[in-house]
Predict the 3D structure of the following.
Amino acid sequence: MCSLFRWLFGKKESGKHYTYAICDKKSEAPPNMWYRLRKWKSPHVLRMETTWTRDWKVFSVDEPVVGVTRENRESSFLLLFDQPDFRIFLEREKDNPVDPNAIKVKGSATVQGNLLERQLGYLSKETAETLKGEEELDARPYCVYLPHKGGSYGLRLRVLIRSQSYKKKTGRA
């Protein structure tokens, strides 16, 4: 059985509620919605089951996002993550002075009628180096560790690359 839960985050004065599903089994998790299993001990860990077409192949199932606690990125994520049209995507940052292969992790969602786009962090330097030859990248949210007293915020993704069959079909192989 799966039920919806509204969680008040932070101080009660903030009035910000987040909605996610609590499920008895992973197979009950609604697609494209944050959930946690009832048996999990921590209410601060949420996952999301997402889909993609056969034109994409999973490069990494559980990729940590780095730099999530810099430049108020935690607040950016909390602003976007429970909106119905929330999505995560990757963007190369070729003019990055530290890493010419840098890949930004960005999020977008409609908040109060406005489409907002925010940077949420980066893929690791090692992952960005491995992906430097890939022309098209995509990502899906996988797991979030919501910030709480005694714990820190963290974000993990599924990183997708174009499949070989797609590359052959489009003449990019």
Remarks:
- The chain has three helices and ten strands.
